[in-house]
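Hey, I was hoping to borrow your eyes for a little while. I've been staring at a protein lately and its backbone has me curious. You're getting the sequence in one-letter code plus the fold written as tokens. Would you mind checking whether the tokens look sensible for this chain? Here's the protein in full, and shout if anything looks odd to you:
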Amino acid sequence: MAPALIPLNTTTLPNPGNRKKKHNRRCLLWLVAFLCGAALALTPPETRVEWYIDEIPQRTVKDILRYAISGNPRDYFLYRAEPMGYQLEMIRRFADAHNCRYRIDIVPTADERRQQLADGVVDVMVCSRADYFSQGHDRYPTAAFALPDSSVWVVDARHREMIRLLSRWATHVHSTRQSLSPSGRIRQPSGDASSPCPTLSPYDDLIRKYARQLQWDWRLLAALICQESRFRPDIVSPRGAYGLMQVMPATAAGLNISDFTEPEDNIRTGVCLLAFLHNDPSLSDTDEQNHLKFTLAAYNAGLNRIGECRTFARSQQKDPNRWDEVAAAIPLMRYELHYTGEYIPSGRFNGVETLNFVQKVWERYEHYRNLVAE
């Protein structure tokens, strides 16, 4: 039996018990290292995050995330006037999971998308793995997360919070295989998302005609009609609203219009109401986008009610000329503390329907601007 080696810095003989403890500790460390390695190996490579040096300044997560995607028809397209596609589905799922909103820009080339990400124009660049690994990474640090379809979401490494959220979300997507919606919902289109869809409905010519009278983008009017009726001309709501633009009989009577049941008459009546709301002097101080959003809100809830919302928002130290700030105040109007006050003479206002209406019409309009010819 070989003699035990005596350490040079001690004059006592080694204790066999100590030697056993050291052996056990070494085994434990090897076991921990093995388990960590196994966990890393089991984690999809696309969900591993490369953490960059602490000196890189951090950037905060925005309320609205902007995505640059290609014109791949599988990723983003229209089917019966409804926006669909793999990337749109993933973007919506991420937004729903993290309570944020999104905007999509179609940027056909990977170089343009990389440049927009570098310039801070967009928050997420969507590309193929081949495009990602073919780019140079020495200009600015990025982190990438691959989805089950082999696409890659690329973000600026300074977005530490985005990296953390995307790392967890991408791991969840891979572990649950949430790669696609039910098979009946996402359909493979023909054509290219970068080639705008020629039509939305059988009523496109009428919508263009009356949108010109409003001086609106016809796609905004189409988005409103789709939200109201899904382009079904004979639909009647439980409240008695009728047709493409869900015109109430009392509204038509107030505008001295007797027949509003035929598609063109219905659109003409709805546009007359929109023109009346859009030209109201109380909205003259708003910028173009907020003016349109307030008009949409008034179409849903009435001009007087939206006027009260703006007055109440001002009492809450919010800008009454910005729809997002007014929208933030509206949920308070359902509480007795507020609706019994001087600013809300019409009484309690739930507001959920109006908030959803404006958000969904505007979101649909942005999809139509991306995918429908002007």
Observations:
- The chain has 14 helices and seven strands.
- The first strand starts at residue 64 and ends at 69.
- Residues 16-42 form the longest helix (27 residues).
- The CA atoms of residues 254 and 298 lie 16 Å apart.
